[in-house]
Design goal:
Radius of gyration: 34 Å
Number of strands: 14
Largest sheet: 6 strands, mixed
Number of helices: 18
Amino acid sequence: MPMPKRQNKRKKKAAGATGEEDASDAEEPTTPKKKARKTKPYVPALRTGPYALLIALSTQERGSREGITKAHLIELAQPHCDSSFSAPSDPTKFYTAWNSMKTLQNKDMVYEKGRPTRLYYLTDEGWDTAEALLKTVDPSQARLDKFTSATRAAPDDSDNEGISDIESPIQRSNARPSSGSPKKSAVLDIVPQGKPVSSAADLPSFTPIVLEPGSFTVELVLDIREIRAKSDRDYMEKNLTSGGIKPIMRALALGDVLWVAKLHDPGLLKRRGAEGEEVLLDYVVERKRLDDLISSIKDGRFHEQKFRLRKSGVKNVIYIIEEMANAADRYGEAVASAIASTQVVNGYFVKKTQGMDDTIRYLLTMTKILKEKYEMKPLHLIPTKVVTTTNYLPLLEDLAKKQPNIDYHITYDAFADISSKSGNSTLRDTYLKMLMCIRGVTGEKALEIQKRWKTPKDFLDAYNRIEEKEGTGEQCRKKKMDLVSGEMVNLIGRKKIAKALSVKISEVWGDVQT
């Protein structure tokens, strides 16, 4: 018998095979083709360089053969952009918002013609994008920040270093101002130290000097050390002026920016028993670039500056923090903690900006708002002759309680004298600053130490008594290291002093060797 043929389960597709059955056997499953993705049209983000350039170029008539020069285009685009077209956002970088033009050209939205004077035009695609932007966004709408008034801080001994509810570097340099800049660097010695104030009965009574609306204008005062870079010292002054606000330039004893009411009649205050021609308004700005904030946290300047702001009596304190890319990567937690402390513990408003240009826009907005707030109402002025460095803060607190609807001010010259570092340094202030020089001792902790040991002598005597009682052995050493932490064992939160910090304090004040 012939052997049966072995059936091959795998059917090979024969070339030229015919028949429906063979054709069906030869068919293999096929994967459906993927649909090609449509490329999303490029739409620039609001107030970026490309956005501003498209808005500026769309001021021409569509189909017009007249292009726009670079200089004119920058002038038209700058109001619609948060970054500068003329200077880098960071002195360490070299690109400006004008570099966005290359992006638009690569996207076929803008083309240029002409040599040597280049003219810029929108393509059809550029016109479509610009018109779509104009339909969804009103480019004429200004960016205004919320603005609320504040309540005056009570100058007590608690850890609240001043309360303020207002919402709201560029490097410092000790360079001398240019000869053309108005300035007042000399501080007049017009406010005496005075006697300590123990109760409201020790406060003086006075008749306020009232300045009528229309007799003054609100002016912005900018510290002369607020520069952009060594090669660009007048950047802030020039851009504030181009924005419609010409600042008064001078060396400030406190803060980086403040506002004054400048009298039209320079002799008016003198005739009414005061001095100068300017009245301080209740707003001061401390401005820091993020890297400078980190540096000031590390060396203790940050706490010292907040301490001096609290002693100034100005009720609306604004901290402007200029952000920098990658500056806070290493110290992000410390920066976040410092900002939170400034807002919650001190009650100051923290305004974050994207750079110097954003800061300038904020200052311009603030100035316009303060003009509306103050120029149409009378100002009540405390005569300088009744003010002393010791009664100034208690007097403001007492007036705020008795007449909460009236804001009382002092002359700028009196404020400068009170705020100068040498003019307002009491033993208590110096003691607190000495304590805060120890790494880890914050303003809150220093105040708690000062409550228990009133003067530096009291603090030293506490360590000396341990040595007199225990001798100079190991037991004396341990008790000195535990002195501060043992006294504050019941405190909680930021006021509490741990054992490790107590040891550091004993090394400085108790002469403990570790």
